[in-house]
Amino acid sequence: MSTTVPSPVRIGILGGGGIATAHLNAYATVSDRAKVTAIADVDPEALARREAETGAKGYTDFLELVKDENVDAIDICLPHHLHTPAILAAAAAGKHILCEKPLCLTPRRRKRSATRCRRRA
Fold this sequence. Notes:
Layout: E1 9-14, H1 18-29, E2 34-40, H2 44-54, E3 57-59, H3 62-65, E4 73-76, H4 83-92, E5 96-99, H5 107-120
Parallel strand pairs: 1-2, 1-4, 2-3, 4-5
Helix pairs in contact: 4-5
């Protein structure tokens, strides 16, 4: 994982639901430093709404979004049970990661996620 991040940081948001609104609003306040370039959601209507709202590239599968070379950092706004697979996928792709709480549902998953992230650092 690169320690140098371009400016603005290119953000990929996983999940276009309610909490994503707060994150999108926050990114809008620092548009000179962060830009949402991709968003993933399994709900086609939610995805279409977020694409229109942000101009970001849409994905129906977050596993595809994390591979996007135009994304530097992944913002995980998914239901709790999907945090671990999203963290693991983002780490494997060498992305920086921001995850809503809880990080993981069990201590074992947390340890696995932390280990994977450390290996990529």
